[in-house]
Amino acid sequence: MALATVGGVGRAPVAPGTFGSLVALPLLPLLAALRAASLAGYAAAVLGIVAVAVWSAGRAERLLGGHDHSHIVIDEVAGMVTAGVFLLGTRPAVAVPVAFVLFRMCDILKPFPANLIDRRVEGGLGVVGDDLVAGVYAGLLARLLLWLL
User: What's the pLDDT score for residue 67?
Assistant: First the structure.
């Protein structure tokens, strides 16, 4: 439960998903630095975060009852980390907030196939899968937006 709620952040009385996403913000520059030093280490870290998210979200979902309980916010962390994959290591002070806003929009709107995953996939993969798709969309949109600016 501690992992799935990101140390209790998911128990925030309002907007727990937003707070879960905020927790991931400091991770993005750290992961970008790791990517610059070791691509293999970066890939292992990102895949590790996603794997822990899927596992802990699935366990917490069973304990909390119901699909994608609002207290589970590790999926937002995994989604933000996924968005970070598409960001360049330069200008993190601009890129990270842009990715955050776009991720929250994509996470709420659930563009295809995120909406399909959210409705049809069960367990931890269902909880985290839509956020991974939102992270891909947010990362690609952020990269495009930052390139245009």
Answer: 83
